[in-house]
Amino acid sequence: MNERDLRSILSLNIKKYRNYRKLSQAEFAEKIGISIPFLSDIENGKKWLSPRTLAKIASALNIEAYELLKPEKLIPDNIVDILEKYKVDINEAFGKTLGDLHENFISQVITK
């Protein structure tokens, strides 16, 4: 991995996490104390940032700094968004399924 790859990963991750937190560039730039054009340049891979700014960004996004340098997840964002959107339904469905399995198991153990 070269510097260009690392810059690309960093810029995509910052933008992705910022959007996930539903923050505009203006809101986020103000929150971390940098200008909007500088944030835009970082998110477009045109500018590099200091370790201090990287730490501020990670803190504002409530993640560890290394997460901003990790290549894209194996699960595409659209799948993550779908899972997040239906999290309550999924938890209810799995909770019921696990509850049913547990009851089934207990009834089999008791009857033996």
TrEMBL record:
CDD domains: HTH_XRE
Residues of the HTH cro/C1-type domain: 14-68
Origin: domain of life: Bacteria
Keyword presence, Cell inner membrane: no
Any one of the GO CC terms: cytosol
Single GO MF annotation: DNA binding
PROSITE patterns per record: HTH_CROC1 (PS50943)
Keywords, comma-separated and alphabetical: DNA-binding
InterPro entries, A to Z: Cro/C1-type_HTH, Lambda_DNA-bd_dom_sf, TransReg_Diox_bact_type
Xref: PANTHER family: HTH-TYPE TRANSCRIPTIONAL REGULATOR, METHYLPHOSPHONATE SYNTHASE
Name of the protein: DNA-binding protein
Species of the source: Treponema primitia (strain ATCC BAA-887 / DSM 12427 / ZAS-2)
